[in-house]
Amino acid sequence: MNEKARVAYVTLDVFTDRAFGGNPLAVVLDARGLSDAEMQAIAAEFHYSETTFLLPAEDARHTARVRIFTPVGELPFAGHPNVGTAFVVANLGTLFGKPIGDSLLFEEGAGLVPIALIREDGIVVGARLTAPRPLALGPEVTPGIVAESVGLDVAEIVAKPYPPVIASVGLPFLFASLASCAALARCRPAAQAFARHFPIADARAIHLSVRDGANVRARVFVDHGMIIEDPATGSANVAFAALTAARLPEPEGVIALDIVQGVEMGRPSRLAAQAIKRGGKVNTAEIGGRCVAVMEGRLSFTRGAA
Length: 306
Prior knowledge:
Helices cover 19% and strands 45% of the residues.
C-alpha cells in the first residue's frame, strides 16, 4: 500500500511589515522522514525562491537543523530563509519538544547560524542573523561583464576606487555599484550573457547597488536555470555590509545600512544590516528585519512520488 504523507507548513513574507511585500518563504515544520527528492519536489511545488525544512539538531545544544532548497537545488546558507524560519519557530513556542528562547542557533551547510529575535511589546515581529562565515573575497570582475549581464552601458558601472568583485559570508555573489538609481531601475538581465559568464568563482547572482551614506537601494538577479529577480536577499546584503566595512580606511569601525530592495518588482523590502571591523578585519556581519505570516496548511502526497 502506498503511504500517504501529510506535512504541515507555514508561509510568510520576510523583510516587510505587511503581507504581499518582501520575500515569500515556505517553512516545512517537521521534515523528519522526507527524502532529499521529496524536499526538492516540495520546494519546486511552492516555487518560492527558497523553502526551508526543519529537522532535529544533530547537537542537542542547537535549536534545529535547517535545510534550504530553491526550486532547483539545495543551498548551504541564505538570508531571508533564516530570518523567516526563526520567526516561525519563535511563534511555535516549542520545536521538537524544546522551548524556544530569545536566541536560536541553526545548523546549516555553511555552518552554525546564530539568530536573535526582534520583539515589540513582547511580540516577536522579526529576527536578525549573524553570518556563519567571515568575509571571503574572490576575484575582481570587469565592468563590461556586469554591464552586458544586466543590459547597461559600461559607463554606468562604478569601477573606482573599487571594481566589481565576488564576495561571500556563506554564499558568493558578484557585487557591483551603479552610478545612479535611474541606472538601477533600467537593469534587464540578459540570459545569454549570464550563460556565457556565470558561474564566476561559484557565484550565480549579481547584487547591484546605489549607496548614499547609510541608505542603499539594491537589486539582485539570480541564475537558477532561468534568471529571476529576488525581492529581498539577506545573504547578499549581509555580505555587502561586510564588504563595505572591509573597505573602510580605518582599522576599526561599524557600518550600519538601511537597504531597500524589491521596489522595481512590486515587492518592497527593507533590510537592516550591520558589520563590525576590529583590528583591520570584519569580525561580525548581521542582517535582520520584520516578518508577516501569510498562510498555513498541510501538504498531502504519496510517498515515493517524487
